[in-house]
Amino acid sequence: MSSFEVLAAGPLTTVQDEGRSGLAALGVGRSGAADRRSYGLANRLLANPDGAAALEVTLGGLSLRVGDETWFAVTGADLEVLVDSGSGPVAVGRNAAFVVPAGGTLTLGMARAGLRAYVAVRGGVAVEPTLGSRSTDTLSGLGPEPLAEGDTLAIGPRPGDLPDLDVAAVATPEADEVELSVLRGPRDDWVVDVDDLVHTVWQASDHSDRVGMRLSGNAPGLRHRDEDRQLPSEGLVRGSIQVPPSGEPVIFLADHPMTGGYPVVAVLVDEDTDIAAQIRPGQSVRLHWSRR
Questions:
Q1: Tell me, what's the pLDDT at 249?
Q2: Residue 264 belongs to a domain with what CATH number?
Q3: Which residue range forms the structural domain that includes residue 234?
């Protein structure tokens, strides 16, 4: 079985797949790739089966050395991708399949736009599954530990089919203001004026991770209609926008908790949650009501 060695892990690199579906009633979140669209594209470029495990790289800085000739694809954040076969690094394209020769290295620069890159390997990353998934859940601690320098990861058997797409025409993640569509409710009547959610230009806070992204704006934010009223904990889904007493909304992402006790006043349209996963701290965010 082929493998690769981690020479540098960057700020945060985890193994992710499609996640742990169907276990919410047991208190186990789905987790999985934060940007499912970019993750899925990386696997399709290599003809990997749906659900093959890949690497999710936050901001960049990952460097790997392969033992045997290995095919990769990198999607998501806009960053430089370098392959070194021993004669110096050569830039290769994102959103395309490429080969790293035996003994060569693959290195990602730091992201210029977007937050998370996905590195798929032909055959998938072959770590042991936990509850049916190879995903790292940073909230619950399920799944493999984040990658560290010196780790060696096995690569699964190559699929029989060959990739039939050279380059995918994919837009680069937005580096300026990002627009997201949201559906109103279910607890929109718990705040004084829920339309403030879409009338405010928010900024993504640096208090953001795979669990959720906090939005900051002009004080006082969204005010609870009755500050003494208590809401029993209820279920949460990916893309839920919860308003704590601070008035600063929180958009829940891949590793969100299963329940929460603050009102959820809106929910992102599902595909826009993938876009939200690429928003960097400090970026402007504008929400608007979905017409669906």
A1: 96
A2: 2.40.100.10
A3: 178-289
In a domain, 173, yes or no: no
Task: Catalogue the long-range contacts made by 158-166 (C-beta closer than 8 Å, 24 or more residues apart).
Answer: 158/71, 158/122, 158/123, 159/46, 159/47, 159/48, 159/49, 159/122, 159/123, 161/47, 162/47, 163/45, 163/46, 163/47, 163/71, 163/97, 164/47, 165/44, 165/45, 165/97, 166/96, 166/97
Q: What is the mean pLDDT of residues 112-116?
A: 97
145 and 236 housed in the same domain: no
Each residue's pLDDT tens digit, 272-289 = 999 999 999 999 999 999
Find tokens 């089919």 and name the residue.
161
Say if residue 109 is in the same domain as residue 191: no
pLDDT digits (tens, 9 = 90+) for 217-268: 877 789 999 988 889 999 999 999 999 999 999 999 999 999 999 999 999 9
In this structure, the answer to whether residues 127 and 184 fall within a common structural domain is no
Q: Are residues 126 and 27 part of one domain?
A: yes
Question: Measured on CA atoms in the order 114, 96, 18, 134, is the torsion positive or negative?
Answer: negative
Residue 58: inside a domain? yes
Q: Specify the 3-state DSSP secondary structure of 148.
A: coil
Which tokens go with 254? 């891949």
Cα–Cα nearest to 253, from 197, 288, 290, 213:
213
Residues 78 and 205 in one domain: no
Nearest Cα neighbor of 136 from 230, 233, 209 is: 209
Pair (119, 240) in one structural domain: no
Residue 95 shares a structural domain with residue 189: no
Q: How many domains, the chain?
A: 2
Residue 140: predicted pLDDT: 95
DSSP, residue by residue, 176-224: S-EEEEEEE-SSGGGBS-TTHHHHSEEEEEEEE-SSEEEEE-STT-SPB
